[in-house]
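Reminder: ligand-aware prediction takes two inputs, not one.
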Amino acid sequence: MIFAANFKTNHTRASTKEYVDTLLTKKSLFQNERLYIFPPLSALQKCESDIKIGAQNAYMIQSGAFTGEVGLEQLDEFDINTLIIGHSERRELLGESQTMVAQKFQFFKEHNFEIIYCIGEPLEVRENGEDHVLEYLSTQLEGIDTNYDKIMIAYEPIWAIGTGKSATIAEITSIHNALRKLTQAPLLYGGSVNLENIREIIQIDNVNGVLVGSASLDAKKFLELISLSR
Ligand code: 13P
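Here is what comes back for the chain with 1,3-dihydroxyacetonephosphate:
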């Protein structure tokens, strides 16, 4: 199974290091799992263990005049070759268009990155029914090679993120089954995954892992979440 921790704008360089050290004290817990953590860009660091550290965002450039962004050169310094692309917070709050998201995908695919590619609908689309959801998600897959051998697709309904209200088992099952018809890539679910619901979610067919925000911020709790999944 894949367990990915998205710190968003939480943790510092020092606390990220402590976090990784805490995880490494319980290596046996995740020796058969794939673990990723995505700290803020200022906390990127080399990690020679089995835990992969990735970036939450990057710009599709080697280096250049893109104020506030990091490119390939800055990621290379820390041997970072894993990236989240298309998170709803970047699409919604920072105005990343599908065109830009697809350009990022293409660039980092060409550089052989592992990519967690996020899709997910807002509440008003969900309220119109699943057909509308599937239609919406398909627009978020435009320009994306879902057969890329290093893509993982994370379904994260926007209304489930940070709300404490995850999608239901039936909703996740149905969307993941539909996605499975499109791709053999690992499929992750994200949106209020926590200690209470992880067992049920991880057992769903076609859920190959989870992308976790708030419930990943405390290393001990994240370890507990992993242990509950076994
Ligand atoms: P929460 O787990 O806090 O709902 O966040 C999910 C998420 O956005 C992970 O990328």
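The first strand starts at residue 2 and ends at 6. The beta strands are 2-6, 34-38, 52-53, 82-85, 114-119, 151-155, 187-190, 209-212. We will return to this case in the review session.
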